[in-house]
Amino acid sequence: MRSGLPYVPAVVRGISTRSSSDPACGTSSPAPKDAARIGTGRPSAPLRAASSVERTNGPPRTCRGCRTHSQGNGFDWPTPQSLPACRAELARRQHESTPCTRTTLPSPTSSSASLRDRLSNRPALNHPGEGDKLGQVLAGLIGPEGNDPAEVLRLWTEHLAPATITVDSPRFLSFVPAAPTQAAALFDALVSCSSIQGVSWLLASGPIAAENQVLRLLADLAGMPAAAGGCFVSGGSAGNLSALVTARDTARRRRGLGRYDRVRFAVSDQAHSSIGNALRIIGVEPFTVPTVDHRLTGPALRAALLADADPCDVIGVAATAGTTNAGIIDDLSGIATVARESGLWLHVDGAYGGAGLLAPSVRDRYRGIEHADSLVIDPHKWLFAPFDCAALLYRDPRLARAAHTQDASYLDALHTDDDTQGNPSDYAHHLSRRARGLPLWFSLAVHGTRAYSEAMEKALTLARTTAALIRNTPHLELIREPELSAVLFRRIGWTAEDYAEWSARLLAGQKAFVAPTGWEGATVARFAFLHPETTPEIVEEIVGTMV
User: Average pLDDT in the 261-288 region?
Assistant: First the structure.
């Protein structure tokens, strides 16, 4: 697929160019307009992989959590017997002649139509649910006896799924959105069906080798050395926590510090909340460095250290490659210089912005990231992977193993002296883990990195276009030029209540989900662009509601 990623909330979008008009399927829906464009290249590979989940030496396996049919909805095929139906539905959408039968979806027509809507990349934004009403729906559902799968699915489709704001909608512009590719979503279904215990090389050498290939790609993009490595964890919070534990233990060992000796970590007031939370959990005090225009710089770090009465207990610094609120990239090169001079561990939180290493238009802004001792990037944000997936990289993985390897007699079989057989459990605070890096690996292998770069540049271009629109709109004020894909602006004259009411109206009318944020003590508006199918027309429609 050379024309870009098939961005997807839709797992099968563009795979089939014929109408799904089989009356057994319940409804008739035409193929997407751009199906031919999206389907160019190798359209069938993801489907073949995702549908090949039945063992030959035993009964079919239950496809639990199968996101093949409802990425982001948590749909579950309830019985082993339903897996062939899952495969049949995928095959039907893969240009295969097998007709859709009534057993394809164990649900009424309305559920089937809702499912196909999800697969056809038409996800509604939906609304938050009301606790008491949801409680009534769920009352008595789980008990000693089971229920008809069709009835459980009906409850899901009619009551529970609509109580989920859809983060992979092109109109979801809050926090940091998601937009997993169809290849990643389909392979995530296969991973879920495969019961992979990704804790060790012994149990999952093939999956771990594939994950390591992606980690190597990210390390190379960052300019880290050939020995760099790590693992995939659930998210930026888990990655930051694990990296800071490694930094703390390494500093204690190198400096001869005791377990209860005071240690501090330099952070800015713009650091992600998970950094402060991790420091609190591991008993390390924050050493807050004032920022210049919300950006941590090398000179500011040096000045703070010189001004401190006892800077010797500062063991590291956490820089940010793309702040969540404004997408600001810290002065990574300057910070790295000070870190080397002072013997500090350099951690870079690139959970949101680190993926920008793949975008040529902003690549130069990451100068200095190659000096990181640890780095976190969340593929479930800007690398179009399903939740949950974060890459944790170390300059020297041996330091992470020293901090995180768990020793017990029942784990002895997992440990070897072979550095080529590293265990993901040795690089973070976890033990049991799913092989969450595999969907990203499959999607990258299918589409190539160029498609990813093109998709990311779309979001960056839209951010710049939106900034120009705001500058040219009299009643709006652009707060700062966007560095990445987050745009902060204000509606002149509005109060916090006005922003809240505006946001609620947008969601109620299903125009968009745009949550207000805070900036320098005031409530402002914020767009977070990530989905490649968020268009300037959508943005203009939203801005038009602020008159």
Answer: 96
Q: Which pairs from 205-211 meet CB under 8 Å and 24+ separation? A: 205/421, 207/435, 207/438, 208/422, 208/424, 208/435, 210/437, 210/438, 210/441, 211/424, 211/435, 211/437, 211/438, 211/441
* pLDDT score of 361: 98
Helices (H) and strands (E) in the chain, counts: 18, 11
Amino acid at 11: V
Supply the mean pLDDT for the chain. 82
Structure token pair of residue 522: 């005031």
Residue 120's pLDDT is: 58
Does 38 score more than 50 pLDDT?
Answer: no
Structure tokens given for 457: 């540049």
Burial class of residue 258 in the structure, from the number of CB atoms within 10 Å of its CB (0-12 exposed, 13-18 middle, 19+ buried): exposed
* Percentage of residues in the chain having pLDDT higher than 90: 70
- β-pair type (390-394, 285-289): unpaired
Q: Is 505 exposed, middle or buried, given 0-12, 13-18 or 19+ CB atoms closer than 10 A?
A: exposed
Q: How many Cα atoms occupy the beta-carbon half-sphere of 538 within 13 Å?
A: 20
pTM over 0.85: no
Report the share of the chain in percent with pLDDT over 70.
Answer: 78
In contact, 197 and 432? CB cutoff 8 Å: yes
Provide the phi-psi class of 350: left if phi over 0, else alpha when psi is between -120 and 50, else beta: alpha
Q: Are 18 and 11 in contact (CB under 8 A)?
A: no
Give 149-163 as a 3 state SS string: HHHHHHHHHHHHHHH
User: What pLDDT score was predicted for residue 527?
Assistant: 98
Q: Find how far residue 77's CA is from the centre of its chain.
A: 24
pLDDT per position as a tens digit, 166-188: 999 999 999 999 999 989 988 99
Instruction: Say how far apart CA 381 and CA 180 lie, in whole Å.
Output: 9
Q: How far apart are the first and last CA of the chain?
A: 41
In contact, 422 and 199? CB cutoff 8 Å: no
Q: What is the pLDDT of residue 415?
A: 82
Give me the DSSP letters along 288-304: EE--BTTB--HHHHHHH
**Chain centroid to CA 448:** 19
pLDDT reported for residue 114 = 63
Q: 418: burial class by Cβ within 10 Å (0-12, 13-18, 19+)?
A: exposed
Residues sharing a CB contact under 8 Å with residue 492, sequence separation 6 or more, in sequence order: 475, 476, 477
pLDDT bin (cut points 50, 70, 90) of residue 133 is very high
- Quote the DSSP letter at residue 98: P
| Least confident window among 95-109, 124-138, 390-404, 476-490 | 95-109
Q: What are phi and psi of 302, to 5 degrees?
A: -60, -45
Task: Name the CA radius of gyration of the chain, rounded.
Answer: 24
